[in-house]
Amino acid sequence: MKYRKKNFLIENVFAKKLATKHATPLYCYSYKKIKQNVLNFKENFKNINPLICFSVKSNPNKILLNEIKRLGLGADVVSLGELMLALKSGIKADKIVFSGVGKTVKEIDFAIKKKILLINAESKSEILNIEKIAKTKNKIVNIGIRLNPNTDANTLSQISTGKKENKFGVSEKIFLDLVKYTKKSKNLKLKCLSVHIGSQILNHKPYEKMIRVLNRLIKKTNFHFEYIDLGGGMGIDYKNNQKILNLKKYSKIIEKFLKNKNSKIIFEPGRSIIANSGVLISKIIYIKEGYKKDFIILDAAMNDLMRPALYGAEHRIIPVKKNNNKSKKDYEFVGPVCESTDKFSTIRNFQKLKENDLIVICDVGAYGMSLSSNYNLRPKAKEILIKNSKTLVINKRQTLKSLI
Length: 404
Ligand code: LLP
What we know:
The protein has 404 residues and is an alpha/beta fold. It has two domains: 2-29 and 275-403, Beta Barrel (Lyase, Ornithine Decarboxylase, Chain A, domain 1), CATH 2.40.37.10; 100-267, Alanine racemase (TIM Barrel), CATH 3.20.20. It is 29% helix and 25% strand. It has helices at residues 15-22, 31-44, 62-70, 80-88, 105-113, 124-137, 172-184, 204-221, 247-258, 271-274, 307-311, 400-403, and strands at residues 2-4, 7-10, 13-14, 26-30, 51-55, 74-77, 96-98, 118-121, 141-146, 188-194, 227-229, 264-267, 278-289, 294-298, 317-319, 328-334, 343-351, 358-361, 382-387, 390-395. The longest helix is centred in the middle third of the chain and has 18 residues, at 204-221. The chain is elongated, with a radius of gyration of 23 Å. The structure holds ligand LLP. Residues 55, 58, 76, 99, 159, 161, 196, 199-200, 231-234, 268-272, 307, 366-367, 371 line the site of ligand LLP. Ligand LLP binds next to helix 10.
């Protein structure tokens, strides 16, 4: 993604052309970028040869999932819907792990039927439930237990999952009890210790702390875990100048941890695989002079991209066509939804814009479309994929007819 003669391109296709043909708001992904991210991830962790399970919640598009599968990844799912989609996308059951604190009987039943790699249980009640279902089916089910390591991920509080106040995983004490319990079970086969401390992690230190907790705990259990599932959470550079997680450093920490262990590492990355492969192209409906600032009212809104409203997350906004205009303006980019939080960003010294101009909201490939809604009865945006300079429609624009 770059500018050519001041025009924004996605894999050699002009964003303006795409907007004219497909209308806006428009989610647009670059295959090249996804591939680059996967290769980069694999390269950095090549010494530990992990099983990489793409976190479907970050982007549940069937065609993108199929591309990700072709690049060799499995899937991390958290609902029956995601599990069915992963299978439909061609991902093999033996590369699928299932997390989540509230798996229902129906979900567990389906996961057992499909023989997925692991159900990562998050409570004693869930383990008893899996055991009960497995018993009635006369099956032995492979499970993991998710530990809450009480480790601060140093990220936004809303996307932290590994501290003791969070609902995820079990405490060390319960973990030890459950290891003992599963050892005696005829229908459960404990294979994995899983953990996921949060998302958008930008430094290796929280991971280092988490690994220390795992080391200590594994010694206490005196149990051989065939798999250690370290979750995802690897952060990306949303600001275009941020220091991000050094994957090599993280890999080194894991290599050390794995000495004398003979366990296979599983990762569940979402954002680091898909976030920077996607942009949201939007058109300016109106420019409105406020008391103190000018509002750029876009045709994309918080229902299309919820992260800024939900977490105060910042996404870069850039023009589709750079102009030569020397005069700059301060703008607040907002959507048409009737909420004051329907605001993307306030940007100083932006090039002067006019109504009908197009802009690009960057790095929306993860938790963009997947968090979108029909709030204000707005249809969901269209999604396209650029692959080898060809444009594929990978999700049609929702029609009002289907909503009304
Ligand atoms: N594994 C588990 C168990 C998870 O809960 C998550 C994300 C992942 C893997 C993938 O994490 P990633 O590599 O993408 O950071 N909506 C928020 C992010 C929520 C993440 C939830 N869990 C956002 O827009 O930032």
